[in-house]
Task: inverse folding
């Protein structure tokens, strides 16, 4: 699933960023070499990060 259309970031990338220690959407995006643009995706990215952190 595409999480961020502006940056073409997929759910798997956000999950991997969370597993590598990113705690926020902005940290995850920075780790992928970009930043949120319109911001609509940050809520979804945050939910994915929270899910990954809870599973750890």
Result:
């Amino acid at each position: 699933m595409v999480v961020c259309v502006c940056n073409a970031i997929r759910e798997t990338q956000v999950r991997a960023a969370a597993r590598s220690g990113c705690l926020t959407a902005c940290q995850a995006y920075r780790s992928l070499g970009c930043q949120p643009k319109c911001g609509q995706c940050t809520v979804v990215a945050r939910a994915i990060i929270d899910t990954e952190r809870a599973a750890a």
User: Anything to note?
Assistant: The mean pLDDT is 95. The CA atoms of residues 26 and 35 lie 6 Å apart.
